[in-house]
Design brief:
This protein has 237 residues and is α+β, with helices and mostly antiparallel strands. It has 5 helices and 12 strands. The radius of gyration is 21 Å and the shape is elongated.
Length: 237
Amino acid sequence: MDIGKTRIEAGAVTFAIHHRYLDGGAPHSQGAGGRGGGNATQGVCIQVAGNIDDKETELLRFDCFDSDAHYHYGPENKNERIMLDPTVTRNPIAWTIKQLKIKLPDMLERAGYKDLANQLDYNLVAQKLREVEAAAREMDAKERNYTRHNRGDPVIEAGNIRFGLEMRTVEPDGGPAIHVLADVADQEIELLAFDCFRINPHYHYGPRYKNERIFIDTTLVADSLDWVLAQFKDGNL
């Protein structure tokens, strides 16, 4: 994976930070080093990079995602991935910074970079990690991906929710869209969105907050509109 553009030098290593947004079940690539078909999630990525054989190398990576948070030992080496338990780790950014403060040499050694681990300046690393945490938290707040759709016309009231209907065109794709709306804190919020497009049909959980976008497998689902309506009728709303 490409090294993030926001970088903080710390002697023998460099901390890099960028924001990642992954579609669920996407039929397309998910950016540098990413593949389609995974779960929908987003969050800050904190990388530890260093010079190995005159090449900038990603040594460790921490994907501090909303869901499925995890980290990698040696992404360009053995790429050992370990999932985080959200009950134990709680905030993945805070957890990552804590591990880097006390376990960075051990983690680098496990990743296969013992020689570089021996070159660390511990005081400098501890100082720079304060900058890393501040930058990561700011990026997590400012670069969160969300979607704001039109509410649709007509809008059909259904108790404490309403359905907004429209035909959407997002070239070269498009098709009917259903927006599930409700009033939250005295303002109308889009809770769910279903884009029953011709080519890449998909739906969103919490477009204005989580924006977890999941693509529908068109090999299994011939008519995405029928599939969405079936979810409503089956009580999955």
